[in-house]
Amino acid sequence: MTETWTLSNGKVVKGENVPGVAGGRLRPLAIISLTAWLFTLGILATSARGQGQPGNQAPAVQGPWMDKSLSPDRRAELLIGQMTLEEKISLLHGRGWREMFAPPGSPPPQTRSLGGAGFIPGIPRLGIPDLQMADAAVGVTRGARFGRYSTALPSGTSEASSWDLKLAHDYGALIGRELRDQGYNMSLGGGINLTREPRNGRTFEYKGEDPILAGKLVGQEMKALQEQGIIGDIKHYALNDQESGRNFVDVRIGKRAMRESDLLAFEIGVKESGVGAVMCSYNLVNGTYACENPYLLEDTLKKDFGFQGFVLSDWGGTHSTTKAALAGLDMEMPSDTYFGEALAKAVTSGEVPLSRLENMVHRILRTEFAVGLFDLPPDRKAVDVFAGFDVAQRVAEQGTVLLKNAQGQLPLRASRLHSIAVIGSHAEVGVLSGGGSAQVDPPGGNAVLPLPPPPGGLPPALLGQPVWDPSSPLKAIRAKAPHAKVEYNAGLDPGAAAALAKGSDIAIVFVNQPTSEGGDVPSLSLPDNQDQLVSAVAAANPHTIVVLETGDPVTMPWIDNVRAVLEAWYPGIRGAEAIANILFGDVNPCAKLPLTFPRSEADLPRPKPTQQPPPATEADMVSPFPGVRFRINTRRFEVDYNEGLKVGYKWYDAEGKQPLFAFGYGLSYTSYAYSALKAAQGEALTVSFKVKNTGGRAGAEIAQVYVSLPPSAGEPPKRLVAWAKVQLAPGEVKLVTLTLDPHYLSIFNPDKDAWELVPGDYKVWVGGSSRDLPLSETVKLGQ
Ligand code: BGC
């Protein structure tokens, strides 16, 4: 028998409980390990239980806190005054694991959960709504449980390649609308972990390697989402930059480096959106788990960034009660291992002051009031599919990067083509999507039938097979070239693919790199002999065009032998149409890379990925749950981010390495010229310059401003500080004026725990990519 504490009428009561899962408590290591495991296997489905039928909202209740003229803080205060301790604690944790693993024979649970990743029952007597959370990084996930359709948007990397704040707003607004329409009131999207480890299985969910670009994009996305009455969430705070051993990896990094890189992205996102929630991550940072790390949560996020919302743990990322509560964690998800009875006990014993408990509740309720959960509850209705198509296609068109276009191979002229070979990557049926908790169910299911299970093996659904959205490049290409013979070859046999290519005017080879939460890719090479496929096709046909559907950057040993390359990322439900529009010139590409493509992994700060070492002793092997036979390796290990400030392009600049494709790079079917740079220091530094469209097509140029700080600042050679997306008709010139935020010109002084502007000469650079900056001017600042 184990000792437990239960809540009865707001009082903590000591009792006894049977050891095991139901009613008992799962061991912490069990939980973290299981999460990684389940995601790796692709089978995690939280079955949180409340009372009643799915989607019931709390009945309208009258009370002074319902007075909309009062501030969210005042309304929260009034409401907290009415709550018992038991009620307060009930808002601070999910109820996932316990009931998920209820023993066989338990009565079927009644739930109001909509089946999203998280659910916290509200308090009907006070009109507190249920918190219905859904993962929604690239669209609303797990819609299938209630037969709901959601738009599979292009990946976060595609959105980031647009560098378009208005489009990021549209992306967030669409997700917000679809969450509302499906009855959810909180999103679990908003990932902005920087690309320190380009082999990361979740790069596709995030927004590249630059903190200002990522922070501003997520800021717009969260703002838009919250305008729809949905609580936004930025994650995974912080430095969860690799999936390998994510629950056991201890990130080692200096204060200055983290504040100026990964944490700056969160700072900008939080400040620009007033986001309601931040999810702390699985990993440790400098020896302390992120979800109980006072420097990250209390000192930085809450104090320095002025974050007024609540911090929720990643699923199974809570590791303590008192330590976590005092460090700034406000909500344990998805379970109540630490923030249920254990928290009640800690409050009653005085280990956690009641004032801190009330602050946790206050943060949650003030967010619910501020975002509109009490006043504007979601209304379940059918999603507007066509509005979703529109946004998905626009993002894919603005986010597909033209990496190479030798001899003007693109755009294709349909009238001049008699035959087109379309090869590889299931292009006859769909486009690839990213896996894990961000996976959006495609309408009709996976467009590619999963492989049958091996005899006696696990069913395919458990093997985390890649999912293909039903948007067929082959059909879209046929529609663009109705008079040409367009033939498809699956690309499994390079010889057969080359034979088709040889007999065709042009060959378009689709290649892919599946990535997913729960693991990193072993290397940046395309898997499944696809490099060999491209080489064989390119050798057979000089007009070979490669379309990449990847989550991460990839190496391209064949780059010199192909005419054109498009990086389409995971392009979403209208990906094929967007790709075809770009291939045939109905859309002029304008996207620029939000992350560097290295020539070789030898050029990375860590040429080999940092992996969890094998168990040192038997004690490292722990069963994820009492009673289960298998055990997992829980051995901790360190990853040393000793590249420090030099993340992404800053590394390549500082180390004098030539990337394959640089940050900020991307081609267009027209060309641009830059002139007339002026940098003037008034109240802030203002930069103006002219951009001219020197080609024959209308286009949009993403003009970028970088700054080199004075040498005494000890910074990498340059940093991105501003950009503008400039629409230009052929021959048109526009004057662009940008005011630089002084924060982005500053450095973080760890001794003073403050940002400061280093006096000296600042060199301002302007141009079309981090490696193509034709204009520069030096200004003195801070003197
Ligand atoms: C992921 C989060 C996700 C959560 C709920 C975790 O494993 O890391 O990003 O929001 O699960 O699905």
Q: Compute the CA-based radius of gyration.
A: 26 Å
What fraction of residues sit in β-strands?
A: 15-25%
What's the tally of helices?
19
Main beta sheet, described? 6 strands, mixed
Order of adjacent strands in the largest pleated sheet: 12-19-18-17-13-16
Number of strands: 31
- Uncertain regions spanning at least 5 consecutive residues: 1-51
Intertermini distance: 71 Å
Derived structural class: alpha/beta
Attached small molecules: beta-D-glucopyranose
Task: Offer a quick outline of the entry.
This protein has 19 helices and 31 strands.
Structural account:
This protein is α/β, with parallel strands linked by helices and 783 residues long. The protein contains 19 helices and 31 strands. The strands form ten sheets. It has a six-stranded mixed β-sheet, with helices on both faces. The termini are far apart. The structure holds beta-D-glucopyranose. Beta-D-glucopyranose is lined by residues 35, 39, 117, 135, 188, 235, 314-315, 437.
